[in-house]
Amino acid sequence: MKIIAFGGSPSKNSINKKLATYAASLFENAEVEVLDLNDYQMPLFSVDIETEIGQPELAKTFLAKIESADFLVVSLAENNGNYSAAFKNLFDWCSRIQKEIFQQKPMLLMATSPGGRGGASVLEIAENAFPRYGANVKATFSLPSFNDNFNVKKVEISNSELDYQLKKIVESIKLNFKNT
Predict the structure, then answer these.
(1) What is the tally of structural domains in the chain?
(2) How far apart are alpha carbons 140 and 124 in whole angstroms?
């Protein structure tokens, strides 16, 4: 199984990228590729810019990465209750090329933040919107208070109850994946 994982943040120290990396690592014997949004920086989307430059190769490359996956692990950053500008811009460019950005790939959709809600607002927005763009969301997971509940050095959830919840979700996904 090939997993494409990414965090929806351009931060060099993205907590969402760390969570996505950890979650993807729970799928034993999987080939995991972790994408960095910084590798997909494009001009701010507008129809005027699209008319001027066409569709950026980086957006096409991102869509090809999604196409290569058997499973997606996505953890979204929450900026003012919504997607980060970097993720939204990539999303907008990709949707101009192919409306079903996520290409019916099964997905574990997550969010985390330093706050107690763990990106709940952006997770709710994405859970409602992503299926219209070809996401087959199998499960969602929110990690609240990232700095208190994640061990950055060990790259793992340090809160045993939350870690158990995520591992239970992954086991359920793996079981369902085997039965298809």
Answers:
(1) 1
(2) 9
SS3 category, 70: coil
For 26-67, the pLDDT digits (tens) are 999 999 999 999 999 999 999 999 999 999 999 999 999 999
Q: Rounded CA gap, 60 and 99, in Å? A: 12
pTM to 2 decimals?
Answer: 0.96
CATH number at residue 83: 3.40.50.360
Helices (H), the chain: 15-25, 47-53, 57-68, 85-97, 120-129, 146-149, 160-178
Which tokens belong to 13? 């120290």
Print the domain residue range for 9: 2-178
Contacts of residue 34, defined as CB under 8 A and 6 or more positions apart, other chains included, come to: 5, 6, 17, 20, 21, 24
Tell me the pLDDT tens digit for each residue of 164-178. 999 999 999 998 877
Query: H or E element: which one contains 3?
Result: strand 2-7
